[in-house]
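Check out one such.
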Amino acid sequence: MGLVLYDTLRRKKVPFEPATPGHVGIYVCGPTVYSDPHLGHARGPVVYDVLRRYLLHQGYKVRFVSNITDVGHLTDDADQGEDKIAKRAKLEQLEPMEVAEKYMWSYFDAIQALNVLRPSIAPRASGHIPEQIELTERLLNLGYAYERNGSVYFRVRAFPEYGKLSGKRLEELRAGARVEVREEKEDPLDFALWKRAEPGHLMRWKSPWGEGYPGWHIECTAMSLKYLGEGFDIHAGGIDLQFPHHECEIAQAEAAGYRFARHWMHHNHVLLEGEKMAKSTGNLVLLHDLLQAHEPMALRFYLLQTHYRSPMDFTWEGLESAKRGYARLLQAYREVRQRRKGAQSGTTPELERALDALEKAFFAALEDDLSTPEALAAFFTFLPELNRLLPEAKGDSLARAEALLHTLGEGILGLFPPRVLEDKLSGPLLEGLIALLLELREEARRAKDFAKSDRIRERLKDLGVIVEDTKEGPKWRLELT
């Protein structure tokens, strides 16, 4: 079938075809780094990481650009208020770039723990001031912008297609707009390309219009065009960026005469108790707190259980359920790896057919607008068949099962990094010690010393090792935190 993605601009699912065969360019709006990341900041990186991994698996060369906003994002998400980073700098008594550096690495550490691949390029807005000034000058020369008292604004009226991404009409926007006292804009809908730095403003650069700093929207337009070129394949970000940020990006680029993104993707909010998770309201769960208290891969698994275009309501019960589901999947992978080592050569036809069905269902799900919930469901349809067939499975089929689980589970979904397989599950010392304890437990059971048998089992459980008695003998797995 091939990959089909929902395009926000066209408001329908469309087949994905890159502009240059064999190459894909993706731009994802990254964070404004003025505080520690919360769970909502993890959803986009995980979703677009799966997209990137899928494209890499299909043989594409992918340039994945995700920016860092370290200047120009004001507290009201438009043209009023303080710069978010400058405001935090005053609070923490730091230089603004110290704040940006501190929280940029806090963000990168968190998404690395979630097994998200590093961006090909992670440009910082403060490092691309010349490109933003150049684009602003171009818009001025073309009549799409004007200068007032050292600030430069984009004329929204001059771009009739403004609103095509969000579906908002200019008449409706104008009706809801208001002009502030001493407003210097021609129209309240116009937005800043460059802002004059007031006395005492810490973040400022020289420009043809005096000292100032860039508007938030111009940054991503300039950086995406610089690193991906005109007509790049995918521009992605959170649904809250659809308007005004992405709408303004399109207006700036196309008014300047550039072909902009060919395909737009937006992921939905993460909710906490039914409310949007956001720094501004304090309704949030910090990502580092979650990652310290719970297995990061179980959290990644939880994020993938909801389709990216649907809101995700985070609950502690949901996280515990996700931990159990991930443990089942991880244990199945571990079991296949263990049994393959001593299995006889040959194939098991029933297992081969089950693997065929898993592979077909998995790719059908992902190629239908990146449906990770259905992709995960394909695994859990497969697991009962796998467990039934494992005792008699032959080596060649087990080798294929291990390879397929690795390709789908780690290569594409990113759920089995070496840490969870090698450090915890494949260490010969760990496995040998647990095997020894289980032998002692079996001896106690044969001697009808059930108190001792139960004591060994409970002590192992306290240590995070779950023992299950089956008709084939005891099995163990590590309990996820």
About this structure: Residues 315-423 form a domain with the Four Helix Bundle (Hemerythrin (Met), subunit A) fold (CATH 1.20.120.640). Confidence is low (pLDDT under 50) at residues 423-427. DSSP finds 16 helices and 15 strands in the chain. The longest strand covers residues 23-28.
